[in-house]
Amino acid sequence: MHRFLRRVRDAVRDWVRSAPGTYVWLAILLVTTIVMRQMAPDTLDAFLGDRSTNIHALSTHPFRVLVQSALWIDGSGWLPYAVLYTLFHAPAERWLGTGRWLLVLGTAHIGATYISEGALLWAIRHGHAPVSMVNTLDVGVSYALAGVVAVLTYRFAHPWRYVYAAGVLVVYGAPLITGRTFTDLGHFASVLIGLACFPVTRNRPGADWDPLAAPRRAWAAVAPVR
């Protein structure tokens, strides 16, 4: 039992070390989530509002809010993001390398923010949204996550690549059709940006992963020879 637990511990440690950016970011989100839970609702709204990538903030101090908005989780617990980061960010960082992974998530986060807030600005100017939405709350890490989820399309071998891409487009496209909020647009834009990051994935080791390869090998090893 002790040997098994040591193997599990070593496997977890090696996994975390292989994706340092993912787990440093998660650690920061854990701290900021704990900080948020200590705040009164009114104080929290004002605090997050000062770190929001809304139209007003992007026009006055864009760099600060683009960075700070990615360090807070709005309205969700930390644990679901720990699972999602492990399922998507960590494999992407291990595959692409920390530098390319940061490039993809940064491009998705910034690009989707400007696309969604630009659409909101257009809606305000044409009377489709209230002027007060220039100060709307918009913090979180979901745009970066959506971009990384999408870029993992190129990790799969054919035809799984197309199956995965179709699933991602449906998951993020359906809310855009039914809800049509600026955040729905931002998420879908993030997916398109992630898919457009194909050049970043070229010549990366471990590409063309076939999820059925291991089960096939296992079956071939035990199947009776005729």
- Give the termini separation: 40 Å
Kindly identify the CATH topology. Rhomboid-like fold
Low-confidence stretches: none
Helix content: over 70%
The fraction of residues in strands falls at: under 5%
| The first-level CATH class name | Mainly Alpha
The CATH homologous superfamily corresponds to: Rhomboid-like
What is the overall silhouette?
globular
What does this protein look like?
This protein has twelve helices and no strands. With 226 residues, the protein is mainly alpha-helical. The chain is 72% helix and 0% strand. The chain has one domain (2-210): Rhomboid-like (Rhomboid-like fold, Up-down Bundle), CATH 1.20.1540.10. α6 (78-96) crosses α7, α7 (98-125) crosses α8 (142-151) and α8 runs parallel beside α10.
Write the layout of secondary structure elements.
Blueprint: H1 2-18, H2 20-37, H3 41-49, H4 55-60, H5 62-68, H6 78-96, H7 98-125, H8 142-151, H9 160-178, H10 182-196, H11 198-201, H12 213-222
